[in-house]
Design brief:
With 255 residues, the chain is an alpha/beta fold. The protein has a domain of 145 residues: 3-Layer(aba) Sandwich (Rossmann fold). 41% of the residues lie in helices and 24% in strands. The chain is built from eleven helices and ten strands. The two termini are 29 Å apart. Bound molecules: adenosine-5'-diphosphate and magnesium ion (MG).
Length: 255
């Protein structure tokens, strides 16, 4: 579904992303993790062309993104960022309907879609009629996810979407995202610097260090076989990680 083929992003003589290759299958949930400054956000932005790949190619379903009109590409990919980026003077419903409006959906279809998403993201206590600042941080982040899903994109790019939330709200939203992924089978590339969040949510975890992909594997593989001291240090105590993972997944399984 998404193919990063020897992709780099160079600024001057600095390689922000360095020769990265990664293929994400349809319906897969892949987490991109690494310390601050390792090139995670830049990698996401090369997929929806907010920044150009200066070498290599990004393909979606086999088509080079550089050959598609950037606006059309962006409308076909859901994008969720930490600072949310909701329009403060628009209601929640109007915020969610942003892309459907750009796509000229008729009003009735937009209304029905917004109602469906408000319910999916548990914003069905009249939040649709409110303005973003009348909502809690967790609710605002839910609106961000609903807006990204509005036109039913196949791909969701999420850049530390829960990074600003308190731990309890964050866990609740992780649980909901896991459920949404199971239900809607979107292809998700999820950036985080929180290894527990990555291990909990992802089918595969890609670890970045200074712009380079240093390890790619399932949570179990990464915990069992960290390839370097860097990865070992990033993981910390693998027993603690396994414990956190098992507790979180047991909770998810119990709804
Ligand atoms: N346009 C740019 N010019 C110069 N430096 C940049 C530019 N974009 C990103 N960087 C730098 O590249 C590094 C990686 O950035 P980023 O992809 O945002 O990392 P991450 O999301 O992993 O924290 C950071 O050190 C950042 O300051
Ligand atoms: Mg970032």
């Amino acid at each position: 579904m998404i193919e990063l083929d020897h992709v780099s992003h160079r600024v001057g003589d600095r390689l922000i992303v360095d020769n990265l290759s990664l293929t994400i299958g349809r319906g897969e949930f892949c987490a991109l993790v690494g310390p601050s400054g390792s090139g995670k956000s830049t990698t996401l932005k090369m997929i929806n062309r907010l920044v150009p790949a200066t070498a290599g190619a990004v393909r979606i379903e086999g088509r080079d993104v550089a050959e598609r009109p950037a606006e059309q590409l962006r409308r076909s990919i859901g994008y969720v960022i930490q600072s949310i980026g909701l329009f403060p003077h628009w209601t929640v419903a109007d915020n969610i309907a942003t892309v459907p409006r750009l796509l000229d959906w008729p009003a009735e279809r937009r209304r029905a879609r917004v109602a469906e998403l408000l319910q999916l993201l548990r914003l069905d206590g009249n939040e649709g009629a409110k303005y973003p600042q009348q909502l809690s941080g967790g609710q605002q982040q839910r609106v961000g996810v609903a807006r990204a899903l509005a036109a039913d994109p196949d791909i969701l790019l999420m850049d530390e979407p829960f990074g600003a939330l308190d731990p309890i709200t964050r866990l609740a939203l992780q649980t909901e995202l896991a459920a949404i992924h199971r239900r809607l089978a979107k292809t998700i590339l999820f950036v985080t610097h929180d290894i527990d969040e990555a291990l909990r949510l992802a089918d595969r975890v890609a670890i970045l260090d200074r712009g380079k992909l240093v390890q790619l594997g399932s949570p179990q593989e990464i915990l069992a076989n960290p390839v370097s001291d860097f990865v070992r240090e990033f993981i910390g105590d693998p027993e603690l990680r396994r414990l956190a993972l098992n507790i979180a997944r047991a909770k998810d399984a119990n709804g």
